[in-house]
TrEMBL record:
GO MF annotation: an example: transferase activity
Domain 4'-phosphopantetheinyl transferase intervals: 101-175
Keywords, sorted A to Z: Transferase
Protein name stated in the entry: 4'-phosphopantetheinyl transferase superfamily protein
Record InterPro entries: 4-PPantetheinyl_Trfase_dom (IPR008278), 4-PPantetheinyl_Trfase_dom_sf (IPR037143), 4PPT_N (IPR041354), Enbac_synth_compD-like (IPR003542)
Organism: Cellulomonas xiejunii
4'-phosphopantetheinyl transferase N-terminal domain location: 28-94
Keyword Phosphoprotein: no
Region (Disordered): 210-229
Amino acid sequence: MLADLLPPGVVAVESFGPCAPAPLIGDEAAAVARAVPTRRAEYAAVRACARDALEQLGAGRPAVPSAPDRSPVWPAGVVGALTHCDGYRAAAVAHARDWTGVGIDAEPLAPLPDGVAHLVMSDDERADLADVDPALFPERVLFSAKESVYKVWYPAVRTWLGFEDVRVRLGDGTFTAHLQVLGLGVDTLHGRWTTGRGLVVTAVTLAHPPGRHAGAGADEDWSSGRRTC
């Protein structure tokens, strides 16, 4: 699913179903030292995806520990993002010489919890969703798109980006995100989305302008009480 949403040069690895046993290496274990077994298993499984993706990128199989802000720490020269939800986990990575950032997110193909929609989207955004098939749970797709945008924004800017700071409009398998605040160097991001296997998956990337190179970084899931990987 995910690979079809990402451009050439970005490597994605995903896995479905129950978490297969996976080791934690280096400093990874510190982030989940006090976590319940299910949380620890998800954390390890998504990092197994990350190592597979990094190896395909040519970056070896290093540890991907968590920074104090709980974002993943990628090896030098790499940008990337992680996501997981029940029965699914994925990683996407790319060379920092080519890309400012990569954002991915996965959500269950289901309505948003009660009371969430008005917190994450404007009245205009909700009105725009009237043209989208309700069986695709467009409010969930829009929420996921904003999560993916944040994962591009935060590693590059290192400041908070509120849901109200991004205006998303969905197309047929695509979305456009208009940033309402400065910092990323662009005011519009273009992403893609799909549904299947009980999931909504979104992805967005930002390439460097010609002649510009930047450093690495990436964030994970974004919310107040938001999941982290």
